[in-house]
Amino acid sequence: MTQVQEQDANTRLRELGAALRRLSGDGLGVVRVLDRHGFGTVESGQLLAGTASGALAGVLYRGALDDAAVPLAAASATEPQTRNAHVGEPAALAAGLACSGGATLLGHPLPAAPAEALGAALEHGTPAALVSTADGASALVLSGTELADVVGSLGSAALDDAATAAARKLLRRGATVTERVAVEDGPELLLDLWIPVPSVLIVGSGAIGEALRAQAALLGWSTSRESELDATVAAVSAFSDADVLVLLDHAPKFDTALIAGLRGRGFIGALGSRHTQSTRRERLRAAGLTEDELAGLYGPVGLDLGARTPAETAVSVVAQVIAARAGRAGTALAAAEGRIGG
Question: 121 and which of 22, 128, 202, 327 could share a cystine (Cβ 3.0–4.6 Å)?
Fold first, then answer.
């Protein structure tokens, strides 16, 4: 397999989804990352799919694990199994990874109905989760905006309920994630959740807006600009968890859009001085927002990085979006606990 090309993340997921649907009737095996160390920062939701006849879709760690992952994909079409893989520094760097590392790979069958459901969700850009027992003996797929559609089973209603609850809790983060989930009195689960890449709605004009568009483009996020109230409210009312509002315009009329967002979904941020923020919050309280609803407003939006220029301000804003989606406080890595890089 050739090294994965630099593509928009959503495009890669759509292509993977189409391939899963195409291969779903051929006895499909999937390979996922059960555990890893090293490699630096890598994307969650890594998935390679294959059939016993050798058809492949997806990629793991830019192809660096192909020696172990490709034969595992074919073998796992009929029975679950694990395999350990190690990548040395030269091969890791050649694949575009930050450093060497190792991984425990889980390969397991994915029946036609769950494969079709997962493929359709990824292809259509809707949230989707693949949950299996850590031994790969059984799997289910959840899809849709609220992960309400469930296909497959882990073998018992109690285990299915636990898996569904864990996936829907992670959904609120609004980010693609791979996690192992402990279940009381049950087997450990491996959960991959895929969320569309953020789409940023910038309301207002000026240099900061242009800098935000440039910064979002570096991250592979899509952006749109708006200046009219009705169009802004309509867009914010239709937000998913992955969507982001950055309100640059201080006009009180845009309070309506903030109310729609704070009573809906997504990351709702507003630029402005502390005086502007205080005045805005008083108006929102007067309009009926509760303190819990107001707590969802990121204003002034951005992390405290000491930003002075539009470009630096844009960095602080997207940094806060990343931290919020990951459930992190945005502190220095040296002071943080837990795994570096998610």
Answer: 128
